[in-house]
Design a protein that fits this description.
single chain, 7 strands
Length: 200
């Protein structure tokens, strides 16, 4: 008989949680914390410095499609902890995975192109990044269960192409929108005034 007050095996955990291990395409938005340390390459006001001295990116991951579309998952991406290197190493590992996933690179690929794709100009390159995440369940400061993202899924995974939407046509780099500058709308003047362009 279920529902007995001495047996909690059938009690439902937080029903709002996305099940641990769910794979989903997400978009990262970094909530800026205003902490910069140019010597570390932390610029643009993206990083947050906590009261303990730890530095992190305050990540808001929005599920883009599927049954959990529009759900938001909040996860801190560690950059520095006064307690030692582990948190920062986990953060670096997560970011590497996110870049691999977003840019369609195998984690084992050491080609120059792959190495270049794992470099960023700054945290602005991560803001808006879309990748396939493995959704996990952790606990918040109050001990309540919450979803978090600790790993990205890279192209070696059999479900990657389907979830990323690249099935059947390989990796497509994201299209860069054309810069909307006022000069783009001006007709271009011919190189030599008075001569038609075909006569150059």
């Amino acid at each position: 008989m279920s529902g007995l007050w001495n047996d909690f095996n059938d009690a439902q955990s937080n029903a709002n949680l996305i099940p641990k291990g769910t794979l989903a395409k997400v978009r990262l938005t970094i909530r800026p914390g205003g902490f910069d340390d140019p010597s570390q390459g932390w610029t643009g006001g993206y990083a947050t410095r906590g009261s303990t001295g730890a530095v992190y990116l305050n990540g808001e991951f929005t599920v883009l499609e599927g049954q959990y579309a529009r759900r938001k998952i909040f996860t801190l991406i560690g950059l520095y902890s006064p307690k030692g290197p582990d948190w920062a190493n986990m953060g670096r590992s997560l970011i590497r995975g996110m870049l691999n996933s977003a840019r369609g690179i195998s984690d084992k690929d050491q080609s120059p192109q792959a190495q270049a794709a794992r470099r960023i100009g700054g945290f602005a390159d991560l803001d808006g990044l879309e990748f396939v995440a493995r959704i996990d369940v952790g606990t918040d400061a109050m001990g309540e269960e919450k979803n978090e993202i600790r790993a990205a899924v890279t192209p070696e995974h059999r479900d990657y192409a389907r979830i990323m939407g690249t099935a059947g046509h390989g990796y497509q780099p994201p299209a860069q929108p054309a810069p909307q500058s006022s000069t783009a709308r001006q007709p271009t003047a011919p190189a030599t005034p008075g001569r038609p362009s075909w006569a150059e």
